[in-house]
Amino acid sequence: MSTHPFEEIEGLTVTETMANAMIADGIEAPLPVQAQAISDILAGKNVLLHAGTGTGKTLAYLLPVLQLLRTTDKLRVAVFSPGAELAMQTLRVANAYKDADISSGAVIATSSHRRQKKRVTKGTQLVVGTPARLLDLYQSGKFKGVRVIVLDEIEPILASKEAEVLHQLLSRSTPKVQLIIASATMGRRADAFVERFMGPECVRVEPKENPFQHSIRHRGVEVEHVRHMEAAAVRFIEENHVKRAIIFVSNPAKLSYLYHFLQERGLTSVTMSQERGKQNRQRAIQAFRNGEARFLLTTDALARGLDVPDVPWVVHMDLPASVQAYVHRAGRTGRAGKEGTSVVIADRNTNRQLKKLSYTLDVSFETVSRVGPL
């Protein structure tokens, strides 16, 4: 009987459920970050997965975590996510790959606190959630038995008001927890956290290949005036035959206007906004996934960690507030070794910011000729 490609990773056993989930997801072999990290996580080491979005970080920690839950008595795992959408997406992946007898649940800020407390008990083995809700469980005594903690995208977690409680949790002398960090970006605050809580023996998984250089093409569209932004986007979409894209807008108030602008021109779109509520946002994502809508309009906060396969284009209706935000936006394309294009539509006043992005990320932006109104 032939060995499953993932079983070439030392210590990993691929169950029938995992194998079927990989077939459904089109996964044939481990990505580099998975091949490097899984054995060390299984060995109980603290592991830092510092790799770009779309490089396979989620399965790099979930596969060994699920195996540990199968084989270790009374083990519990907590996965911290900075936002509700990312938490629910992680839970969906975990549920697809886990054995039926592993209990799992989510605690997120957008759902009923009381219902979640009933659903996630002291015996739930895998708990995924936002920092406030997870740390509330800790303070109410429902975190007992948690020996593995995963921080998925550490920067916004450390920026939250609950960060101090997390520090208190990890500062306890006993019991010590295995700490796993999976993050596309690492700033000074995150570096200091790793040094303090993960120690010198922390295993750092940092693939040499930068997907931003090899998998994503970066383009810039200069617009004569900010009032021409939407028209420039439509012209670019039509001239480049963009059939499917995630479109980012920094200002949530502009989502509705852009949605109607695109719809009026026959460009079917859906929006993710805070006002729409969790269920409506999930319906929007599903409509985009199954092809009912060509364009998904969203903000940085709501799209963090969003994983929709085969998105060939990301369009930025403005420059994001930081280099890290651009990484997370552009990382919605060019995932799992596939190619994609990230397009920034901005006026001439943002040239300096675009040059900073280019220098910091070591990528080149192909500049498209200046675009005026339709």
Q: What's the CATH architecture of the largest domain?
A: 3-Layer(aba) Sandwich
Q: Indicate the CATH class of the largest domain.
A: Alpha Beta
Can you summarize the main beta sheet?
7 strands, parallel
> What share of residues is helical?
40-55%
Shape: globular
Average pLDDT score: 85
- Provide the structure class: alpha/beta
Strand order of the largest sheet: 3-4-2-5-6-1-7
Terminal Cα span: 62 Å
> How many helices in DSSP terms?
16
Total beta-strand segments: 14
Whole-number tally of structural domains: 2
**Rg, nearest Å:** 21 Å
Order of helices and strands: HHEHEHEHEHEHHEHEHEHEHEHEHEHEHE
CATH topology of the largest domain: Rossmann fold
- CATH superfamily placement of the largest domain: P-loop containing nucleotide triphosphate hydrolases
